[in-house]
Amino acid sequence: MPQLKEAIDSLYQLALIPGLKILAKLWWLWLFIFSLVLAKNLWQFYVAAIDKKKYRWSLLEILIPREIKKSPKAMEQILSEIYSLGNKAENFIEKYWEGEVPYWWSLEIASLGGEIHFYIRTLTKYKNIVESNIYANYKDAEVIETADYIDRLPARTTDL
Questions:
Q1: Which range marks the domain in which residue 144 is found?
Q2: Which of 155, 78, 151, 71 is nearest to 120 (CA)?
């Protein structure tokens, strides 16, 4: 055991301390690299935020009949079609200059006054495509554009 302790001490004296001294003398290089990475991420966040402001959203409520005699495969088909509408920044210009981010959708279930409601939040430009996919798989369903259900909730709640 004493030999292992001596080996660790000699490694500490010969390699670790001089290595740390070199890293400490190159603090400006590490600061520069960190600043570049931070600037890239901040720029990407900034241009993405500008791009996201252009998006217009629609909230679609899906009114389904009480009994559905379809397999889950129908909903899987709808979700597959929605997923295929997604985009991805394909080159440097789209990602870092135009700030393009992948589109996203939200499927929501809410209980309002004891009633269950199903919603899909989608980009307005894809509203008709989403509606068509629902009607194609569920012929008895009804799809209506509604106001956001969050607005129905009280602004403040009090604890009793």
A1: 55-160
A2: 78
Structural tokens at position 150: 């969050």
CB burial string 134-145: b at 16+ within 10 A, e below: beebbeeeebee
The CATH number of whichever domain residue 80 belongs to comes to 3.30.70
User: In angstroms, rounded to a whole number, what is the distance separating the alpha carbons of residues 131 and 74?
Assistant: 14
- Prediction pTM value: 0.70
- Among candidates 146, 118, 133, 129, which has minimal Cα distance to 75? 133
73 and 50, same structural domain?
A: no
CA 109-115-120 angle, 5° bins: 25
Number of domains making up the chain: 2
* 66 plus 141 within the same structural domain: yes
pLDDT single digits (tens) 72-102: 898 899 999 999 888 887 888 888 888 888 8
Backbone torsions φ then ψ of 141, nearest 5 degrees: -75, 155
For the chain (160 residues), the mean pLDDT of every run of 10, in chain order, is 70 69 83 94 92 92 86 90 86 82 90 88 94 92 91 74
Instruction: State how far Cα 60 lies from the chain centre.
Output: 20
